[in-house]
């Protein structure tokens, strides 16, 4: 049987959530992967992550692991543009 190196072992989104901590959900991790914010490989319909992918994500985001699930993390949606915040035009 071949020995699997820890850095090449494929992690599930649930395992990545456990590594990053916070209030994250697996769906968030998969969404970040689709957006290219965290590296992943797609196997069939499933996404998998290497420890290297997770380490790189943490390094790029320069944050403590416990901060990723907090509401004001670096990957939050940006506020709407000013134009989209305007009230709809109403004819007099």
UniProtKB/TrEMBL annotation:
One of its GO terms (molecular function) is DNA binding. Residues 10-59 form the Helix-turn-helix domain. It comes from the Bacteria. Signal peptide: none annotated. InterPro entries: DNA-bd_dom_put_sf, HTH_17, SinI_DNA-bd. Pfam families: HTH_17. Residues 60-92 are annotated as: Disordered. Residues 60-70 have a biased composition (Basic and acidic residues). Residues 83-92 have a biased composition (Basic residues). Transmembrane segments: none annotated. This is Helix-turn-helix domain-containing protein. It comes from Litorihabitans aurantiacus.
């Amino acid at each position: 049987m071949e020995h699997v190196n820890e850095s090449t072992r494929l992690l599930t989104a649930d395992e990545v959530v456990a590594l990053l901590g916070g209030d994250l959900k697996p769906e968030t991790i998969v969404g970040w992967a689709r957006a290219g914010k965290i590296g992943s490989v797609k196997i069939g319909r499933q996404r998998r992550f290497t420890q290297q992918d997770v380490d790189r994500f943490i390094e790029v985001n320069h944050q403590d692991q416990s901060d990723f699930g907090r509401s004001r993390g670096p990957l939050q949606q940006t506020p709407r543009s000013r134009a989209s915040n305007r009230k709809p035009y109403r004819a007099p």
